Amino acid sequence: KTDNLTAVITVNGKEINRIDLISAEDEVFTLDTNPKVTLEIKDNKIRITNALCPDKTCEKCGFLENTGDTAACVPAGTVVTIRGSSASDDLDAVAG
After folding, report:
1. What is the model's pTM?
2. What is the 3-state secondary structure (H, E, C) of the chain?
3. pLDDT of 46-75, one tens digit each?
4. Which of 84, 65, 80 is nearest to 29 (CA)?
5. Based on the number of CB atoms within 10 Å of its own CB, is 14 exposed (0-12), middle (13-18) or buried (19 or more)?
6. How far apart are CA 12 and CA 14, in angstroms?
């Protein structure tokens, strides 16, 4: 784990918010996306708790708490990724 975890939220490829998870207070909030996506911050972690889409795969990702953790709601075009405090902690590529 790192001392500085940031949740980066993008919608349709555009960053809409960065949340410092270490200093963030617990809260639940809904993004103005289509379909709507609800996120929860709790104990320095974040997750998608409700998505008004058919398959709800993003809800099954659970809490994101480590650098590189990612959850995506494809119908809403929403991606949540955890970034660390140093560039070496960030995920640069995925090999398949």
Report:
1. 0.83
2. CCCCCEEEEEECCEEEEEEECCCCCCEEEEECCCCCEEEEEECCEEEEEEECCCCCHHHHHCCECCCCCEEEECCCCEEEEEECCCHHHCCCCCCC
3. 999 999 988 899 999 999 999 999 999 999
4. 80
5. exposed
6. 6
Give the separation between CA 22 and CA 4, rounded to whole angstroms.
6
**Lookup: tokens for 5:** 């975890």
Angstrom distance (rounded) from CA 31 to CA 71: 14
For 57, half-sphere exposure in the C-beta direction (CA atoms, 13 angstrom radius) is: 10
Hunting for tokens 């974040």 — which residue is that? 46
